[in-house]
Design a protein that fits this description.
heterodimer; A: 197 residues; mainly alpha; 2 domains; 51% helix; elongated; B: 566 residues; globular
Chain lengths: 197, 566
């Protein structure tokens, strides 16, 4: 290649790259515009408002630690929405085993279980994203007794509430049965408010 | 039962749909009229005029390589500048700061080499502008470069006594215009409809039921993720890839995005056959891919379904390994995503790979070390498989005393040396760097887990970097000087030892004449040849890694069964 040829190719290189950059700006703005007008709820993060206050997103889990709420799964990042992450501890990690031992004990204590009762895996093992919004139906039902007692509601009422909120398989095919903790707790608050009136 | 059926049915349907799309791709790269010609041809012409491209001129393989390398270098420099200045550039609503130099070098090179080694947390460390001009640009530019390389190699088999291999600019423009733009525009909306975010809002501040404050991330996520999936970059808009509820919100997206991952690589296999004018090549490539795909399946299913005996002892029901897994996906769906996400070097992860069972990790590392020929990274995957074909032809030729030939071309010393060298380079770069880093104090300090699991972390990291997979076990502290500076050479060596060797082989194949098929020709589509290729894949690549695998994942599996923790 002679010098002129190299300069010509370099020019092509820069121009084509500039076009690619323009495209990478135009494409997201175009898609955002279309999504904004067709699916605004999903595009903005499936946000849940109560009386005009943003309480969270349907898809992002929250930390619940008080006994009057159903608890979410353990999270390695404490449900920090701007810094998702898992524990990254391996299957032979002593640290993981110690954490799980403590969590199992805590779950047994809080929910009045016997000292050798087994607990559902999702309730004592942290999720991959640290933001898992769901727990298994078994984990939710296990907490019914505690929640009902603290809230002063009848156990059967709270149990029905949980059972109503068990999401089945999507399209009857995909995923597994689960309960969205935030939505369950919002419903629980409503139930408690209703019974006070 | 129905769920399992739905997953395998989707894979089958994707592979079937790959045929018409592969034929379309062949037409595009031959420059023949196709479905989108009336719409896109005027735009294509205008681009050539603006950029000063003469679409009728062709390049020799050396010029093609030089142009490709120049273009990639510009990409690295541009990405480096964007990252180093993102703190002061616009579209930065959550106020991130600029990257430290070693971090920026690592990220820029990882994007351009299609490794997408994510040494950062997308929602914490990148501005919306960096996501678009850094991540998104290279998300489809780097696979386009891989794409044109495989086009050149395939096309060279149909040429006779031809000194040139094609025009880089023309091939590249067509890859973006006719492949990525239409696919992206169609496939992005199903993602958004399920809940993948797409906005330019600042992070929303939520007041949780318990009175806490939670930031809800946002950004143009769907448009980035779509290309990370179909271009085999590995979805990573958010730190935790496909585990993040905004990236893989429902079980439906988990199922459907498998098709996104497999579709283009499978279509490329069909395209290769059309461009090389050899239907047998497509048959042989598909056969080898499917055999390997089936071979890697059982072990992860066995390992994950068995559960962790250590957890069972602590009172966890069934010892189910839910650590690093999401509740909305079943165990089967997690395992399928491990296999489908890793086999083509996509690197999209749902399960956290640091927390999966040791034998699952063994399978994952196996899929990476063989060069990801199972459908494969755009360009590099099928190219690695063609290199395997050449080596197999050579070995078969030695055993039977025939002159090796592939797709009507004589395979000679030059091609065999080049193909063999490409494997040696990537094995060398992954094993040597693992060995060097693991004995250094800084390397040991970067580990997130102790015992054999720690060694596995390091081996996984450098293997993934060398084969341009880009996933790693999250416990490893990747934003440390030693990892930031040791991985880019692996990424560069891994990518260009495959791509440039492929183009060099294309150069010599295009110059050769055709030899007629005779009784002495070993047909590539024969079961004998296909089994021989699978055998060579095991012997050349897997055996290199077996010694280190025995003191990594295999040892961990045995110790786990005996109750040891670290």
């Amino acid at each position: 290649m002679n010098k002129n040829e190299i300069i010509r190719e370099a020019k092509t290189c820069v121009l084509l790259f500039a076009l690619v950059c323009l495209l990478s700006l135009a494409f997201p703005f175009f898609v955002t515009f279309v999504a904004e007008n067709t699916m605004p709820y999903q595009a903005h993060g499936s946000l849940i408002y109560i009386n005009g206050t943003l309480v969270g997103s349907e898809l992002i889990g929250q930390n619940f630690s008080s006994p009057g709420y159903f608890h979410s799964r353990p999270s390695a990042v404490d449900y920090n929405g701007s810094n998702s992450g898992g524990s990254n501890l391996g299957p032979t990690s002593a640290k993981l085993m110690e954490e799980v031992r403590q969590r199992v004990e805590k779950v047994r204590q809080e929910n009045n279980l016997s000292a050798n009762a087994t607990v559902p895996a999702d309730l004592v093992l942290a999720s991959g994203s640290g933001l898992d919004p769901d727990i298994s139906p078994a984990s939710a039902l296990l907490q019914v007794q505690r929640v009902a007692k603290v809230r002063g509601l009848s156990e059967s009422k709270v149990k029905t509430l949980v059972e109503e909120r068990i999401e089945g398989l999507q399209f009857g095919l995909f995923g597994q049965e689960r309960v969205n903790v935030l939505k369950l707790n919002i419903a629980l608050d409503e139930l408690a408010r209703g019974s006070k009136r | 039962m129905l769920q399992e059926f739905a997953y395998f049915a989707l894979i089958a349907v994707t592979l079937i749909l790959a045929f018409p799309f592969g034929w379309y791709l062949a037409k595009v790269f031959k420059g023949e009229p196709n479905l989108l010609t009336p719409l896109l041809r005027p735009i294509e012409r205008r681009i050539y005029r603006v950029c000063g491209i003469n679409e009728n001129s062709e390049m020799t393989w050396k010029k093609y390589v030089a142009t490709l390398v120049g273009f990639e270098t510009l990409g690295v420099v541009f990405a480096f500048v964007i990252l180093s200045l993102q703190g002061v550039l616009p579209l930065n609503p959550h106020g991130v700061s600029s990257f430290r130099w070693d971090w920026a070098v690592n990220s820029a090179i990882s994007w351009v080499t299609n490794t997408n080694w994510i040494a950062y947390s997308g929602e914490r460390d990148l501005s919306y502008l960096s996501q678009m001009l850094g991540v998104l640009v290279e998300d489809y530019v780097s696979p386009s470069v891989g794409f044109v390389a495989i086009v050149v190699l395939a096309r060279s088999f149909s040429r006779k006594h031809c000194p040139t291999v094609g025009n880089f600019w023309v091939d590249f423009t067509r890859a973006i215009l006719y492949v990525w733009i239409p696919l992206g525009l169609i496939l992005v909306f199903p993602l958004i409809s399920q809940g993948v975010v797409q906005n330019f809002d600042p992070y929303a501040v939520a007041h949780t039921l318990e009175g806490g404050v939670q930031l809800i991330p946002g950004g143009p996520a769907a448009t980035v993720i779509i290309y990370q999936l179909i271009c085999e970059d590995g979805a990573n808009y958010f730190a935790n890839a496909m585990a993040h509820p905004f990236e893989n919100p429902t079980p439906f997206t988990n199922w459907f995005t498998m098709a996104y991952i497999l579709f283009v690589p499978a279509s490329i296999v069909v395209m290769i056959g059309k461009l090389a004018i050899s239907r047998d090549t497509t048959k042989a490539l598909f056969a080898v891919m499917l055999v390997l795909f089936i071979l890697v399946m059982p072990l992860p299913f066995y390992a994950e379904n068995q559960g962790n005996p250590l957890l069972e002892k602590l009172g966890v029901q069934g010892g189910v390994n839910m650590e690093g897994k999401e509740m909305r996906f079943s165990m089967f769906e997690h395992i399928m995503y491990i296999i489908v996400g890793m086999a083509p070097a996509n690197g999209s992860t749902v399960s956290q790979h640091d927390s999966v069972m040791p034998l699952t990790i063994l399978t994952i590392i196996f899929m990476i070390v063989i060069g990801a020929p199972i459908f494969g990274c755009i360009g590099e995957g099928p190219m690695a498989l063609i290199h395997y074909f050449i080596v197999t032809m050579f070995i078969a030729g030695l055993m039977t005393g025939r002159t090796p030939e592939l797709i009507g071309k004589k395979v000679e010393l030059r091609e065999i040396i080049l193909a063999g060298a490409s494997f040696l380079f990537s094995s060398f770069s992954s094993l040597m760097t693992t060995a060097i880093v693991i004995v250094s104090a800084a390397g040991m300090a970067a580990l997130g887990n102790a015992g054999p699991h720690g060694l596995t972390e390091m081996l996984y990291a450098f293997t993934s970097a060398s084969i341009n997979n880009g996933s790693y076990m999250g416990g490893l502290n990747v934003n440390s000087y030693i990892i930031n500076l040791m991985t880019p050479p692996c990424m560069i060596l891994g990518r260009y030892s495959t791509l440039l060797v492929g183009i060099a082989i294309a150069g010599s194949m295009a110059r050769k004449g055709h030899i007629p098929i005779s009784a002495a020709t070993l047909p590539v589509a024969s079961p004998l040849f296909i089994m021989a290729v699978v055998f060579v894949v095991f012997v050349i690549s897997a055996l290199c890694f077996f010694p280190v695998a025995t003191i990594g994942p295999i040892l961990e599996h045995l110790l786990m069964a005996s109750g040891r923790t670290f």
